[in-house]
Amino acid sequence: MHGTARLKQQQKKKSAKSFWLKQLHSWHWISSAISLIGLLLFAFTGITLNHAADVEGSPQTIEKSATLPNDLRKLIATDDAPDAKKPLPAPVAAWVEKTTGQRGGGEAEWSADEIYLALPRPGGDGWVSIDRNDGTVTSEATSRGWVSYLNDLHKGRNTGTVWKWFIDIFSAACFLFALTGLLLLQLHAKKRPSTWPLVAIGLALPAVLAIIFIH
What we know:
The protein is an alpha+beta fold. It contains 7 helices and 6 strands.
């Protein structure tokens, strides 16, 4: 009887271990599949950011100028209102987008004589200026190349709310990928004696480099 109970207990432990091993494998490959492309992107841009001076492209700037039509000029005519930040009127924004090829949305800076719309973006910058007196529109768009674009995605620079959410979700997937990998290492460590020495090296190497070379 005692032997039967022990056998059942061992089978129960084995079944529980098998269950959790299966779960860890499932979560490990799911999180790795979700984060794979992002990991490749961030690993590549980690190198390009570390060697930014060596891979920096030549900025290309496009300047355009035009004059706002009379019917639209009335919508941005000078007044006595204090300086403020507010969007362009919808018809003006649509005309700016069609004429300059740049976004007309977003908060613009309104002063007595000028409206200035800053248009920073990943891998470049831009702006649109509108003279409220004569309707002169000046725009400038600068592109620093695709490497700079990817670097800015890595840093989350001028990428907007949606990309910031993506980075958070991607980071959570990477954390789950690493955590389940660590737990799988623990489960297989008895059969792989080099597991924990290699993990220790992975911890010690950056720590030693930081202590010795970073001040």
